[in-house]
């Protein structure tokens, strides 16, 4: 496997719930993120995307499958995790909560260096990371506290704190969802610039397909713990194949899918994943009879991601059409 | 027919940091059966505007100008009349339904409450009406017996809408009513709201930071920045061909999928929205503006018609026919 | 912005100065806290200076110069006790013991309480469960009864008094610290620290403890008066160290020797008022500190 590729194979994360039920938050996910590419992981809240991100970072112990980095399976000893976390960094959704209100910007950014015992030229590294994150001149921000900064500036501090360790990959969980609309673009441009200038890869978790369109190379659509469609952004978003992706894209303004398909109901509970195809109870193709030919398979068989390497879909109807 | 009209509305808060102008002279009108969109970011004054309609602002807020609902000035009417208006004239759907619902009461009771308080129906009738309303917003009537925590975010938002409908208002104000929701649930709620407007002829003010949603749902859109309307016009045109650099940037923050111009180029603005207590001189958008000219530093542009009567913009560059995007 | 220091140490110093200045400014705005602080400083100065103001020989029963329970006079401004010692001298010296016991017992209690609370919150699991149950058990015990029983078994001395008071008062701190630890643990910045590779030690020392300690300090200031009251109660019941003078032991002797029936108010009031004042002063400081450190009481924001 190529250097620095983060991959998940058959990854599962389950939580025990009171009453003996089990929530399958992540239910068999295959995903790769390589350096120099931005992968968007999109889905509705409750689909398991945040749990998947935490499992990829080793913050959640998978109950099945594996996470590997650069071909090496992730080990959960504290020493191995610490070394791993130098190379794969997390950017959280809410920068206000992600910064300790008692720590100055300098301390927040230097935290990673101190954890990993990197002592040479600490102020220089912190200044460099801050200015790469767009806070210039960096020295002016050293003594500021998070509450003295705007939301966009706080998120830049969080990003600088991740950059200071010179990671290979960033995992960003809804990095702009809590920011003002006009500020979002600048933060997303940063991620693009890191990719182009330094070959930094990123997994961006989002519910916003527009965000994926603006910055991502590839996209994976997640539904109820499983990736249902995966491929290059242009193809997945302009010609979505999976009925769920089609519906998601169709409700956007000026959507490439002509008729809006508003799905009834809501995402089921992760402890009650329907049998057969998990999307079947809400599937417009199944309900309208469009999928009549593969009806039995939809009811009895959980579809897996299949198709050419670049464009994979987990839908019996799409599979049948590909064969035909 | 004009249902709601703002005439030179100004709201100023007085706090520890002195006088903070939140709304600085807004003129807008909504007709019955129409949806007016107001777009803007946090702190631009759009929520203050919504609260001002029902006089829900804190006492420290100084409100001047006029807000006419069916020709009656809401700002000068007595409390008794205002109460009546709050029940049957207009109602607000806020964002964050979890905080607006009382956690210890069943939702059916909360929906029935305004009907009961208004004293028009017996408890049994009110309960029946509550179930009817829940059904109307797409919830099974049995949900009346649920507590708010047993509902999902989308269902709670539906309950909020049912509460707003309880007394058949003529005007509904939706303040970021779909912001916290997922795309699909948002689509469901928007479908519900536009359906209500179409079938019952109510007027609606939809407030959102998402210009793309407004363009899809509203007839007219107004974009607010630092307490003022900076652009107004048919919603789709404001989104697709902005005549103010701020609307252009706000629109670009929500790219159209399939549009090659936005691919790989996330749109946005440098800098942050201004602090209302320390607005820059001249045009308040100038510090973040890429097309500003010399005049913008000293003079504050008024909202005047550009490209015919329907569009207006408060930007000197646009008023002279120049491009607002570089 | 002013000149910016660039060495990490200078930065840290500047930051510490800044945050201390901020806390002090917040404290100063609390009027009751300032009154408490002035009162407390006065009491501490008097306690420290007691040997300079009053010679220790005046505490000796054999060298007493006054008559039995004399009312206040020019020579004895607060009168005398049943063997002719100056009540003023006794009260001044008594402050030393009351403060020492109050402070050391509190220190011991919060050290134990914080250690148990932070580890219970951070480690959790069966250890956390057991620690919590033990502290619950201590919390529901009637503290005065336990203290009396323990003193009866262990013998009366200053050391055992401190130990006993600490033992019956650590559990409250444990509860508080554990709750605060759990709150901090759930904050996204701990998640960020973990994702940066932080181990338990780093999380505890950089995030959990700095967030817990201000609250501990505030609660400690409120614990001191209860420790002083406990000491006074024990001494009044005759369970204090017989060799030293404390406010409680003065009251104990007063009631034993019929000060109440003799209407010798000067014997009862000074130690009683002293206890009241010191408790009040600590309470005022503690409440003010709580308001400074607990943003929920202050109202979040600037």
UniProtKB/TrEMBL annotation, chain B:
GO CC annotation: plasma membrane
Cellular compartments annotated: Cell membrane
Topology term for the membrane: Peripheral membrane protein
GO biological process: peptide transport
Domain ABC transporter: 4-251
Keyword line: ATP-binding, Cell membrane, Membrane, Nucleotide-binding, Transport
Sample GO molecular function, one term: ATP binding
InterPro entries referenced in this protein's UniProt entry, alphabetically: AAA+_ATPase, ABC_Ni/Peptide_Import, ABC_transporter-like_ATP-bd, ABC_transporter-like_CS, Oligopep_ABC_C, P-loop_NTPase
SUPFAM superfamilies noted in UniProt: P-loop containing nucleoside triphosphate hydrolases (SSF52540)
Protein family membership: Belongs to the ABC transporter superfamily.
Protein name: ABC transporter ATP-binding protein
């Amino acid at each position: 496997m190529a250097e620095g590729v983060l991959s998940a194979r058959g990854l599962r994360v389950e939580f025990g719930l009171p009453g003996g039920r089990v929530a399958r938050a992540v239910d068999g996910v295959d995903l790769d993120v390589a350096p120099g590419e931005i992968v968007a992981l999109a889905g509705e809240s409750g689909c398991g995307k945040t749990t998947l991100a935490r499992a990829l970072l080793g913050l959640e112990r998978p109950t099945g499958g594996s996470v590997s980095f650069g071909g090496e399976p992730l080990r959960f000893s504290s020493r191995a995790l610490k070394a791993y976390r130098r190379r794969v960094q997390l950017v959280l959704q809410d920068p206000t909560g992600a910064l300790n209100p008692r720590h100055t910007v300098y301390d927040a950014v230097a935290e990673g260096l101190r954890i990993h015992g990197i002592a040479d030229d600490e102020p220089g590294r912190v200044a460099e990371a801050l200015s790469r994150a767009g806070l210039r001149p960096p020295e002016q921000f050293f003594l500021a506290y998070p509450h003295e900064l705007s939301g966009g500036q706080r998120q830049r501090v969080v990003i600088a704190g991740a950059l200071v360790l010179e990671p290979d990959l960033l995992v960003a969980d809804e990095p702009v969802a809590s920011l003002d609309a006009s500020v979002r673009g600048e933060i997303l441009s940063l991620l693009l610039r890191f990719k182009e200038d330094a070959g930094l890869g990123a997994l961006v978790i989002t519910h916003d397909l527009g965000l994926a369109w603006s910055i991502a190379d590839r996209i994976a659509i997640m539904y109820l713990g499983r990736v249902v469609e995966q491929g290059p952004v242009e193809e997945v978003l302009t010609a979505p194949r999976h009925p769920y992706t089609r519906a998601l894209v169709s409700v956007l303004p000026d959507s490439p899918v002509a008729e809006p398909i508003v799905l009834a109901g809501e995402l089921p509970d992760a402890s009650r994943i329907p049998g057969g195809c998990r999307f079947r109870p809400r599937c417009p193709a199944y309900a309208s009879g469009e999928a009549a030919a593969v009806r039995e398979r939809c009811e009895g068989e959980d579809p897996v991601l299949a198709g050419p390497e670049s464009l994979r879909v987990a839908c019996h109807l799409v599979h049948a059409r590909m064969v035909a | 027919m004009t249902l709601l009209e703002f005439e030179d509305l100004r709201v100023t808060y007085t706090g520890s940091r002195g006088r903070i102008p939140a709304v600085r002279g807004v003129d807008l009108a909504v007709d019955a059966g129409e949806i007016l969109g107001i777009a803007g970011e946090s702190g631009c004054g759009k929520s203050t505007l919504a609260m001002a309609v029902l006089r829900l602002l804190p006492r420290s807020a100084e409100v001047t100008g006029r807000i006419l609902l069916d020709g009656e000035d809401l700002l000068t009417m007595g409390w008794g009349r205002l109460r009546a208006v709050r029940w049957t004239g207009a109602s607000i759907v806020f964002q964050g339904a979890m905080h607006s619902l009382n956690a210890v009461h069943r939702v059916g009771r909360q929906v029935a409450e305004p009907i009961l308080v208004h004293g028009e129906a017996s408890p049994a009738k009110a309960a029946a009406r509550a179930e009817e309303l829940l059904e109307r917003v797409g919830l099974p009537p049995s949900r009346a017996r649920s507590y708010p925590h047993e509902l999902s975010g989308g269902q709670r938002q539906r309950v909020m809408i049912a509460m707003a409908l309880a007394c058949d208002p003529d005007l509904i104000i939706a303040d970021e009513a779909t912001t916290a929701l997922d795309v699909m649930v948002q689509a469901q709620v928007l479908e519900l709201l536009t359906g209500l407007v179409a079938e019952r002829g109510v007027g609606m003010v939809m407030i959102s930071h998402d210009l793309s949603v407004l363009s899809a749902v509203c007839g007219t859109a107004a974009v607010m920045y630092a307490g003022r309307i900076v652009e107004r016009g048919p919603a789709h045109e404001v989104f697709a061909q902005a005549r103010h650099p701020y609307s252009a940037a706000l629109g670009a923050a929500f790219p159209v999928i399939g549009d090659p111009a936005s691919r790989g180029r996330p749109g946005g603005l440098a800098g942050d929205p201004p602090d209302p207590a320390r607005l820059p001189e001249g045009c308040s958008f100038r510090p973040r503006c890429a097309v500003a000219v010399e005049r913008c530093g000293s003079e504050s542009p008024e909202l005047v018609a550009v490209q015919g009567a329907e569009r207006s913009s408060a930007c000197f560059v646009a008023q002279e026919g120049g491009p607002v995007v570089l | 912005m002013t000149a910016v220091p660039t060495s990490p140490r200078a930065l840290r110093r500047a930051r510490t100065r800044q945050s201390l200045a901020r806390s002090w400014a917040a404290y100063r705005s609390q009027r009751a806290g300032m009154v408490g602080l002035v009162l407390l400083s006065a009491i501490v100065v008097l306690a420290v200076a007691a040997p300079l103001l009053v010679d220790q020989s005046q505490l000796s029963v054999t060298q007493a110069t006054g008559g039995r329970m004399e009312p206040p006079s020019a020579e004895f401004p607060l009168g005398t006790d049943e063997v002719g010692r100056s009540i003023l001298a006794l009260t001044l010296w008594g402050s030393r013991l009351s403060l020492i016991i109050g402070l050391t017992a509190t220190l011991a209690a919060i050290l134990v309480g914080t250690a148990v609370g932070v580890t219970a919150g951070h480690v959790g699991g069966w250890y956390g469960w057991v620690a919590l149950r033990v502290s619950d058990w201590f919390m529901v015990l009637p503290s005065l009864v336990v203290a009396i029983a323990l003193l009866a078994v262990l013998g009366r001395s200053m050391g055992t008094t401190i130990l006993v008071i600490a033992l019956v008062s650590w559990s409250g701190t444990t509860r508080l610290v554990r709750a605060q630890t759990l709150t901090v643990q759930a904050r996204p910045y701990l998640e960020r620290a973990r994702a940066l590779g932080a181990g338990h030690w780093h999380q505890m020392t950089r995030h959990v403890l700095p967030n817990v300690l201000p609250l501990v300090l505030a609660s400690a200031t409120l614990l001191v008066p209860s420790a002083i009251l406990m000491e006074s109660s024990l001494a009044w019941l005759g369970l204090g160290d017989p060799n030293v003078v404390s406010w409680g032991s003065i009251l104990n002797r007063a009631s034993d020797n019929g000060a109440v029936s003799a209407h010798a108010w000067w014997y009862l009031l000074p130690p009683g008022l002293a206890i009241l004042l010191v408790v009040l002063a600590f309470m005022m400081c503690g409440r003010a500190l709580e308001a400074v450190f607990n943003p929920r009481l202050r109202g979040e924001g600037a």
